[in-house]
Write a structure and sequence with these properties.
Blueprint lengths: L5 E6 L5 H13 L4 E6 L7 H9 L14 H6 L2 E4 L2 H6 L9 E4 L12 H25 L2
Parallel strand pairs: 1-2, 1-3, 3-4
Length: 141
């Protein structure tokens, strides 16, 4: 039996967007894909990201904020960046068969305003990422 295709989500700090994408793909397609996420830096798991994912039934509270691994990067079947900084600064991938995509989402950690306004920004980004993961699972792109 062939191994599941490996999807590697990348963001700057591996604290919000890549964690959400990781959580949704694990939850919705973990039977079909091996999933990991990482950052160009490690910023720690954002508690608001954990909270909004929990509201949608996905527990990412045990995830860790990890720095990009060149070994995993070059083993990936799909490398998906979720922020412009990670897309622009992603190291060269030596795996010629990797599919690299950029799915840009606003950084909810930069949201300002009241706590309710900030949480609503996290929810909007969460919902956008979920729709994109569902599209990936349906269309394979």
């Amino acid at each position: 039996m062939n191994a599941k295709p490996f999807v590697y989500f990348l963001c700057t700090g591996n604290s919000c967007r890549s964690q959400m994408a990781d959580g949704f793909l694990q939850s919705l397609g973990g039977d079909r894909y091996e999933v990991r996420s990482a950052g160009l830096e490690v910023h720690g798991l954002n508690p608001r990201a954990v909270q909004v994912m929990k509201e949608d039934g996905v527990d990412i509270s045990v995830n860790t904020s990890d720095v990009l691994s060149l070994e995993l990067l070059n083993r990936a079947d799909y490398v998906i960046t979720l922020c412009g900084h990670a897309d622009e600064h992603c190291p060269v991938i030596s795996n010629n068969s990797v599919v690299k995509w950029h799915w840009g989402f606003d950084d909810p950690a930069k949201a300002t305003g009241s706590e309710e306004e900030i949480m609503n920004q996290f929810r909007e980004v969460r919902d956008s990422i979920k729709r994109r993961i569902e599209q990936f699972l349906t269309e394979g792109k």
